[in-house]
Amino acid sequence: MPTEKLTILENILSANDQLAANIRRLLDQNGIYALNIMASPGAGKTSIILKTLDSLKGIARVGVIEGDTAAVTIDSDKVINAGFSAVQINTGGNCHLDSSMIEAGLKQLPLDNLEMIIVENVGNLVCPASFDLGTHARVLIASIPEGDDKPYKYPGMYRDVDVVILNKIDLKPYVNFNEDYFRKGIELLNPGVSFFPLSCTSGEGFLPWMEWIKGKLNSSS
Amino acid sequence: MPTEKLTILENILSANDQLAANIRRLLDQNGIYALNIMASPGAGKTSIILKTLDSLKGIARVGVIEGDTAAVTIDSDKVINAGFSAVQINTGGNCHLDSSMIEAGLKQLPLDNLEMIIVENVGNLVCPASFDLGTHARVLIASIPEGDDKPYKYPGMYRDVDVVILNKIDLKPYVNFNEDYFRKGIELLNPGVSFFPLSCTSGEGFLPWMEWIKGKLNSSS
Asked: For the whole prediction, is pTM greater than 0.90?
């Protein structure tokens, strides 16, 4: 029985990865750079995406794919109200996006009119880590109030990302958070990963993150 | 293919629920009241459990089962260092506890010497909602910095719990959180659910939560 379950999981993952490779090829053909944004619920994914979109005005045209477990449009409404293209994916209770959902989402975006796509995954520090979505980089957003022990407790997520953003640094004075311990946990799992401590509320630290994105857009164009 | 996957999931859930019913019977025979504590990562599960254990000293002997995706003992060490019985369950990367893991954990606890068991689930607002662990009540811990839209975005979790704790109310002055909107979301999904806003750091609001637990312990003994 466990062998059977393992084989099924492997097949699902392998089909997902093949489709992800096709998606990456399609995006490359259109000159589109794509990010997969992951985080636990409430770390600030949508806020950071909105602020990033705002900073990219006049620099790159960006489409957003919003993943949620429920049939809500809270996040995509925010993006559309801010004047950008957005597609909402309802995972039907599922705990992560997969590449078939991204394939469906891309069909609703004007690909020949975009330089960048940002995917906001379901808020979850476990399941999304296993699914390549065909993006070019994976970004994990942590936040100060979540606590400094998360790299140790969710290593599968911290191990495989290209960027770690530490959000809500404006709340540091009010909570107990040891940044050395947090950084040490990340370095053990993912040495040299790009790291951006910032506050989406105050704007502190946002500039280096934007420079990182602009560097990626320049090298992919 | 989707039908096959659905059938397998149904079988797993049905086996889980049967085992959960057996666990609840075993706990009842031993006069033990059990809670399943769920939350997103960093909402304050371990802190609230530690403070609850402290408040129950001299009132009830409590054992704790700690679930983590990785082979770490951060949480169980904290409980043991505070002088209580704790078992650490490593889910092997899995995103939730199931009743077979609880069955294994219970074998390591002195059941005839306990009045209560607290299970700390994996930090996740999606997957743990589907798995009965054989406990008597499900407690969801939300927290102010996570934001007020979580009931709308994770309805599967908010719909099926017996208690919602809103932790970190001491951070209210520093973040944008509309408690009316949050409460309205909960009421739509789960009318009349027990609700305890509190701060584990300042202790504010902790007493009503302890009274709720004491009421459950009295009626189950």
From this structure: yes
